[in-house]
């Protein structure tokens, strides 16, 4: 009885085999569907056009969206390999063709002139403002000239007095010569009158020199620009006491009146890392691009390499002369400089000259 119950509980081997076979069929079907999905989903070269089944059984053409870097390297027969995109040279590309080194610096005037008075004086009139354009010889400032006018008048009176004394000495000498001819006076008296004439001539020359000095001081009260340029700073105002520029001392009274520079003579000042010094040499061609206008590119060349490095920073100052600057270049703004590669022979010659 027990044997019959156990036998009824056993699973027929044929039924067990059929169940296992159905499971494998399901597993294989899943793998097939997955493989087909991956095949159609994986992008292939030439898949810029995809074909999908239309509602009416006809195929519809739809453009596939381009994915950056998603092109497959596997192509069919006769297909050409896709070429890598080439970055454009110039502004905005981040790298100029032929550039050995790219460094940022600041635009500066090659020469900045601070015009100072030649003596202590009071500003009577100043005729320029910051940003004004000036020309060589243009009057910028007038100092109070009352003292200098008085000195000129005094010197002119001294000259007139000496000229009169010289005329009298000459008349005395002429009379003395006649008296000597008539044997009325001695030779010694003649020598005295002749020497008096020579002494008065020397006094007249000295008086004229003092007059020229007084006129020079008077002319110095009118201060003119020494270059064509633009007023960078106005350092004094009317009624202010100014004194000549002193070097190395503290700045008390105003030591300068205006600062002037030529806007057409600009450089880029760079603190070059000592590790990059071997890539830079005198007269090396460069390209300058201001950070404010990255689409603007100007030619230039290495005009100056400092003879001494900064020990604390580990840098060396380099100045790049900008060729044909325009109104877009403003001093003290930052700019990017690309140092261009050159022929090795030209580099060797430039290094020898340095």
The helix fraction, in percent, is 25-40%
| Pattern of helices and strands | HHEEEEEEEHHEEEEEEEEEH
In CATH terms, the superfamily of the largest domain is Efflux pump adaptor protein, beta barrel domain
Strand content: 25-35%
CATH architecture assignment name of the largest domain = Beta Barrel
Contiguous helical run count: 5
Radius of gyration: 47 Å
Main pleated sheet: 6 strands, antiparallel, barrel
Shape: rod-shaped
Task: Please tag this protein with its features.
354 residues; alpha+beta; Elongation Factor Tu (Ef-tu), domain 3; OB fold (Dihydrolipoamide Acetyltransferase, E2P); Helix Hairpins; six-stranded antiparallel beta barrel; four-stranded antiparallel sheet; 16 strands
Kindly describe this structure.
- This protein has a six-stranded antiparallel β-barrel with strand order 3-12-15-14-13-16.
- The termini are far apart.
- Helix content is 33%, strand content 25%.
- It has five helices and 16 strands.
- With 354 residues, the chain is α+β, with helices and mostly antiparallel strands.
């Amino acid at each position: 009885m027990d044997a019959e119950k156990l036998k009824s509980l056993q699973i027929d081997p044929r039924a067990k085999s059929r169940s296992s076979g159905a499971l494998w069929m399901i597993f294989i079907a899943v793998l097939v569907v997955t493989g087909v999905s991956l095949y159609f989903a994986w992008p292939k070269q030439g898949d810029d056009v995809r074909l999908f089944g239309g509602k009416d059984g006809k195929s519809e053409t739809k453009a596939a969206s381009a994915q950056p870097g998603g092109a497959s390297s596997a192509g069919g027969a006769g297909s050409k390999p896709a070429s890598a995109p080439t970055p454009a040279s110039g502004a905005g590309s981040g790298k100029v063709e032929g550039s050995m080194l790219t460094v940022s610096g600041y635009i500066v005037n090659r020469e900045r002139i601070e015009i100072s008075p030649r003596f202590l004086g009071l500003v009577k009139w100043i005729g320029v403002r910051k940003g004004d354009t000036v020309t060589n010889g243009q009057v910028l400032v007038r100092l109070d000239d009352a003292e200098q006018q008085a000195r000129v008048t005094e010197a002119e009176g001294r000259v007139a007095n000496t000229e009169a004394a010289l005329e009298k000495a000459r008349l005395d000498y002429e009379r003395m010569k006649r008296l000597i001819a008539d044997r009325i006076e001695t030779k010694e008296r003649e020598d005295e009158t002749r020497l008096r004439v020579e002494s008065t001539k020397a006094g007249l020359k000295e008086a004229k020199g003092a007059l020229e000095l007084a006129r020079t001081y008077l002319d110095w009260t009118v201060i003119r620009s020494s270059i064509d340029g633009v007023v960078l700073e106005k350092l004094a105002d009317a009624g202010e006491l100014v004194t000549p520029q002193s070097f190395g001392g503290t700045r008390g009274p105003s030591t300068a009146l205006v600062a002037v520079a030529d806007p057409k003579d600009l450089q880029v000042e760079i603190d070059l890392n000592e590790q990059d010094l071997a890539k830079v040499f005198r007269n090396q061609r460069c390209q300058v691009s201001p950070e404010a206008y990255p689409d603007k590119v100007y030619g230039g060349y290495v005009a100056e390499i400092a003879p001494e490095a900064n020990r604390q920073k580990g840098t060396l100052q380099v100045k790049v002369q900008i060729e044909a600057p325009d109104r877009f270049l403003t001093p003290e703004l930052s700019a990017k400089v690309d140092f261009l590669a050159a022929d090795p022979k030209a580099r060797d010659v430039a290094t020898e000259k340095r």
